[in-house]
């Protein structure tokens, strides 16, 4: 139980109380308690008594203690039971919060999406105070959008679905080995469905099929064949999952075949043809003798064609079959020595500086940077100049406790809509690392955006531009930016560009990383972690970097702390 989870629970209680039409003072008490925790710079483990914080009363303090000790809050459980289950998804609709959902529930007896749609179609919603015809129209549109499952879903959502499946697959003793395939294995930004190759003995196929049909969250069994089982999972969106069951001797070539891409497979078939062979999911067949070769691992399959193993992310039918005739040093997870963008309880993170440092030590990192938000981003409890000065002292104090890792004092500083930076040069000089980023004014013109970015790039204290396009996959397009000019300017000023490894962002994208790399830009793969487990997103970032064919030397957080310092001097 970290502080962020407690804050989210308190905010959920406030929303549920609104839905029930509770006393506004009671609702406010939970929101004030959440705000008090958010503004306190300590981790939950460092707060002896939450009741001592200004803004937290006896009642809310008791709820916080219960959350800490049991992981649950009885008041939240009771509210969840009282509120009709169909109302909860309505809280996610754009323009509807607890107050409005409560009004719909209390005055129109709306309990789910169906009853809300009917009320809108009959004009009952627009008659409520605080709604109106425009709001009613927007609600109807939002309800229609919810029912439309995009053909391809963002990788962040599909990774979560895959992890839920894999937690169950590892428990099935009849499966000898399994691996993701398809576009998810190739780390595409959006994914149609989740594919798996399963190695299964012939005598175990029936048992495995039955267990697959009974996995958690299965809403529909689409196909139940001897060698293929297709399911649909009933998650926030329906998710298709395809399992292919093969004998272990065919595992490597089947995995290669169904990993793709189509264009990559065409290239491999061309290489086979040149050798008098043809490739299928079962192996490599000699055209004259019909002899079928199978392989233990994919690396053996590639070696048969005189190639080094090609990482799945790089299999897009570009020039990979030429590059990998020799060893090509693409970035590997093990090359990463640091994470240079993360947040703590000083702004909107869930863990303390010390907790983030300890987690980085356990990953074997040689350095990390603490980069909490600056004060322009008030919604994230951004640091004022005075608080940042105090944090620098705290980072230095923590740094003295560790010999195996260097902790850098940094900031993620906003580039304001007018182009000014959130901290002055005198303060920036005191920092080890300065990240600049855009969090507002996304609809500005290309000229305005470029002016803002140029101001940051020209500042001698700005080291990294974070999530440069500001896009959120499937939710928000990137800002208006002259990318060639931006990349050229970054190269000229020796400003590092970030590959933000959060799977909701992956910003810069693989295509833009390739384009930027041609100008000589250096990159940093950062997780932008707001809690300890988000540090694990680094592997998603390195996968995207491999898709862009980036090497170790192009990425600064494969360097030693001394090399990083030298680059920024």
Description:
The protein is 40% helix and 14% strand. The chain is of the alpha/beta class and 569 residues long. The chain folds into four domains: 145 residues, Orthogonal Bundle (DNA polymerase, domain 1); 94 residues, Beta Polymerase, domain 2 (2-Layer Sandwich); 72 residues, 2-Layer Sandwich (Beta Polymerase, domain 3), CATH 3.30.210.10; 236 residues, Metal-dependent hydrolases (TIM Barrel).
Short key terms for the protein model shown above:
569 residues; DNA polymerase, domain 1; Beta Polymerase, domain 2; Beta Polymerase, domain 3; 7-stranded parallel sheet; 17 strands
Helices and strands in order, then pairings?
Blueprint lengths: L2 H17 L4 H16 L18 H13 L3 H9 L15 H11 L4 H9 L11 H15 L5 E2 H15 L5 E7 H4 L4 E2 L2 E7 L4 H9 L4 E7 L3 E7 L3 E9 L4 H9 L2 H13 L2 E4 L2 E4 L5 E2 L4 H7 L15 H4 L14 E2 L13 H10 L4 E4 L14 H15 L6 E9 L10 H4 L4 E5 L8 H13 L5 E2 L17 H10 L3 E5 L9 H8 L5 E4 L11 H10 L13 H8 L1
Parallel strand pairs: 4-7, 11-12, 12-13, 13-14, 14-15, 15-16, 16-17
Antiparallel strand pairs: 1-3, 2-4, 5-6, 6-7, 8-9, 9-10
Helix pairs in contact: 1-2, 1-4, 1-5, 6-7
């Amino acid at each position: 139980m970290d502080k962020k989870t407690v804050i989210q629970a308190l905010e959920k209680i406030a929303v549920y109380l609104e839905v029930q039409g509770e006393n506004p003072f009671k609702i406010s008490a939970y929101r004030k308690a959440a705000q008090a925790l958010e503004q306190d710079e300590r981790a939950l483990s460092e707060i002896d008594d939450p009741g001592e914080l200004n803004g937290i009363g006896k009642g809310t303090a008791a709820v916080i203690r219960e959350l800490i000790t049991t992981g649950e809050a009885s008041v939240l459980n009771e509210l969840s039971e009282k509120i009709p289950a169909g109302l909860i998804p309505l809280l996610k609709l754009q323009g509807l919060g607890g107050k409005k959902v409560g009004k719909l529930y209390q005055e129109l007896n709306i309990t789910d999406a169906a009853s809300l749609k009917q009320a809108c179609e009959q004009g009952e919603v627009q008659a409520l105070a605080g709604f109106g015809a425009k709001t009613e129209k927007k609600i109807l549109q939002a309800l229609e959008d919810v029912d439309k499952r995009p053909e391809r879903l963002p990788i962040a959502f599909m990774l979560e679905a895959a992890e839920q499946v894999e937690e169950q697959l590892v428990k099935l003793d009849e499966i000898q080995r399994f691996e993701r395939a398809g576009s998810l294995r190739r780390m595409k930004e959006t994914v149609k469905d989740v594919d798996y190759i399963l190695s299964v003995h012939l005598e175990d196929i029936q048992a495995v099929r039955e267990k697959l049909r009974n996995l958690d969250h299965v809403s529909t069994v689409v196909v139940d064949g001897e060698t293929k089982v297709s399911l649909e999972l009933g998650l926030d969106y329906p998710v298709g999952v395809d399992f292919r069951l093969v004998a272990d001797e065919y595992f490597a070539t089947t995995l290669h075949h169904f990993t793709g891409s189509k264009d990559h497979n065409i290239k491999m078939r061309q290489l086979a043809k040149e050798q008098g062979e043809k490739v299928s999911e079962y192996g490599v067949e000699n055209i004259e003798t019909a002899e079928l070769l199978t392989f233990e691992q994919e690396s053996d399959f590639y070696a048969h064609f005189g190639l080094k193993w090609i990482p799945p992310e790089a299999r897009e039918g570009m020039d990979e079959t030429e590059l990998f005739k020799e060893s090509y040093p693409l970035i590997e997870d093990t090359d990463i020595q640091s994470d240079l963008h993360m947040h703590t309880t000083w702004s909107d993170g869930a863990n303390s500086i010390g907790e983030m440092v300890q987690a980085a030590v356990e990953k074997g990192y040689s350095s990390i940077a603490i980069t909490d938000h600056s004060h322009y981003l008030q919604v994230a409890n951004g640091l004022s100049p005075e608080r940042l000065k105090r944090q620098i002292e705290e980072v230095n104090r923590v740094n003295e406790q560790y010999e195996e890792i260097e902790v850098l004092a940094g900031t993620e500083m906003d580039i304001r809509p007018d182009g000014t930076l959130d901290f002055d040069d005198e303060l920036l000089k005191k920092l080890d690392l300065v990240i600049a980023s855009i969090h507002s004014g996304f609809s500005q013109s290309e000229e305005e955006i470029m002016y803002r970015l140029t101001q940051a790039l020209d500042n001698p204290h700005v080291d990294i531009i974070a999530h440069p396009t500001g896009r959120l996959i499937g939710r928000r397009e990137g800002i208006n930016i002259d990318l060639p000019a931006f990349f050229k300017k970054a190269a000229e000023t020796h400003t590092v560009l970030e590959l933000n490894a959060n799977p909701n962002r992956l910003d810069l994208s693989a295509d833009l990383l390739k384009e930027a790399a041609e100008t000589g830009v250096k990159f940093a793969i950062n997780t932008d972690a707001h809690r300890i487990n988000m540090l694990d997103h680094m592997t998603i970032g390195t996968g995207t970097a491999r898709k862009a064919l980036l090497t170790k030397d192009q990425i600064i957080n494969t360097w030693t702390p001394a090399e990083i310092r030298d680059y920024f001097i």
